[in-house]
Amino acid sequence: MRDLVVTGGTAAVKKWGFVAMHAAIAAAFMFLLQRYFMNASQETSLLWALFFAVCAAGLAYKQSIR
Q: Which residues, at least 6 apart from 47, have a Cβ–Cβ distance to it below 8 Å?
């Protein structure tokens, strides 16, 4: 995994970029899993995707400040 320690003003941008990427990938994965593999409704799939995106963003943020 890449090291998140960067000198200069781009450190914060890179950190939040990784957090956003992690959340987006988790949301997309959960939506596709629920919607197409488990045949859930669209509303349920979106709620699960939102929940997993928030959790993934929280975990990525905690890891980035370690």
A: none
Instruction: Decide if 2 is inside a domain.
Output: no
Residues counted in the chain: 66
pTM of the predicted model, to two decimals?
A: 0.79
Using alpha carbons, list the distances in angstroms from residue 38 to 11, 22, 35, 56: 39, 23, 6, 21
pLDDT tens digits, one per residue of 8-63: 568 778 899 999 999 999 999 999 999 999 999 999 999 999 999 999 999 999 99
Task: Let me know if residue 6 belongs to a domain.
Answer: no
